[in-house]
Amino acid sequence: MKNISILGATGSIGTQTLDVIRNSDGKINLIGITANSSVDKIKEIIGEFEPKYVAMMDENSSKIIEEFCNKEYPNIQVFSGIDGLVKIATLEEIDTVVTSVVGMIGLKPTIAAIEAKKDIALANKETLVVAGELVMNKAKKNNVKILPVDSEHSAIFQSLSGYKNKDINKILLTASGGPFRGKTIEELKDVTVKEALKHPKWNMGQKISIDSATLMNKGLEVIEAHFLFDCDYDNIEVIVHPQSIIHSMVEYKDASVIAQLGSPDMRLPIQYALNYPERKGMIAKPVNFYELGALTFEKPDLETFKCLRFAYEAGKIGGLAPTILNGANEEAVALLLKEKIKFLQIAEIIEECMSVFKENYYDELTLDNIIELDKKVREYIRTKWELGVK
Ligand code: NAD
Ligand code: MG
Question: Is 60 exceeded by the pLDDT of residue 390?
């Protein structure tokens, strides 16, 4: 029996985690959930799972849920804001927290969960990007596991099992290439938000869908892999593999390559993370090799998809450079979703911020400095692009 909380229970990963719970024969127990403002979805989850604790980031939504619970589920406790998220991440009763909020808002609750000695099933890659060193050190110190939910990192984790880090030659991180694979800069000039949101293989939240279209998602994943597996950036290679059947691979020093394959279904890595080291019953469609057709591989185009290059650069600089990269990206993606900028401007904004905040690269790596710098980067972008003060 495992007791868990889900941060971001109403999102794409959160919803698929609920499905993993439904398939767990009562072995996984949902104790706490959070969401930003999706009141109706939270009511549905409460109706089905009756968790003991709920937190809504948005004040107003939390009042609505509190009233709802007072009337229909008086035993459920309701919290709000970032403190509410921290509460749900650190509940006495839980063993594991699924971090499936989007963005670096997940940082504080994740750190708090680790300090409270909870294992982390980590989907929220932005947290590891901005604070990988802090998170991994804290996890080690508190003897908690960081179990990757991201499909590529789950694949690497599985491909590494039974081997030693010193025997790795490199990590081969696969990428679908996103909806704009093969396109030129010229062709990307006028793409719409709708086109950018249309991922060929995965059905995901809006932010990660845009990140997949710019290849920033792969960039964030390179940094995530660096911290999770303690691997040099020069030994992490991105390979575009449009069929998304090989979820990533590890090349060993003798040139042997071990890979993990599976249907593109996030319930698989979620279920693996929640039951590790055990494997549970079949939740995804098995791969039908006879129907697959060819598996193909390409080099990523770093000239057109500059975000992937920027992520490598920020990762190699280290310190707070990934905080600038991530903050700029989160804010630029939000602007694109509001149709305030064009697709290619995401990379331009990130490049500008990396240069404007250069003097902050090596500020001391503390939680407060990360949060402070992230805020500064966002304010800079909002003033210049959203409010149009140029
Ligand atoms: P989503 O947008 O579908 O869901 C996000 C969840 O976070 C929702 O429950 C939402 O209510 C909550 N949330 C949003 N903003 C918030 C805020 N400011 N404060 C508190 N809660 C907030 O996102 P998703 O696609 O499920 O992705 C979640 C995380 O998992 C991201 O970090 C993403 O990169 C990662 N991830 C997702 C997938 C996928 O297939 N969707 C795969 C790998 C990794
Ligand atoms: Mg991924």
Answer: no
Taking all residues of the chain, what is their mean pLDDT, rounded to a whole number?
A: 97
Phi, psi of 203 (to 5 degrees): -105, 105
For 33, counting Cβ atoms within 10 Å of its Cβ (0-12 exposed, 13-18 middle, 19+ buried), the class is buried
Least confident of 29-38, 155-164, 250-259, 292-301: 155-164
Q: Which of 19, 101, 326 for a ligand 1 pocket mutation test, highest count of atoms within 8 Å of Cβ?
A: 101
State the architecture of 318-386 in CATH terms: Orthogonal Bundle (1.10)
Tell me if domain 2-149 and domain 318-386 are identical in fold.
no
CATH code, residues 2-149:
3.40.50.720
Rounded-to-integer distance, Cα 276 and Cα 143, Å = 15
Atom of ligand 1 nearest to the CA of 10: 9
Whole-number Å distance, alpha carbon 151 to ligand 2 midpoint, is 5
Name the residue with the closest Cα to ligand 1, atom 36.
Answer: 123
Nearest CA to ligand 1 atom 41: 204
The region of weakest confidence among 111-120, 157-166, 269-278, 365-374 is 157-166
Q: Which residues are annotated as a binding site for 1-deoxy-D-xylulose 5-phosphate?
A: 125, 151-152, 176, 199, 212, 217-218, 221
Question: pLDDT at residue 389 above 80?
Answer: no
Q: Kindly report the backbone phi and psi dihedral angles of residue 86, in degrees, each rounded to the nearest multiple of 5, phi listed first.
A: -60, -40
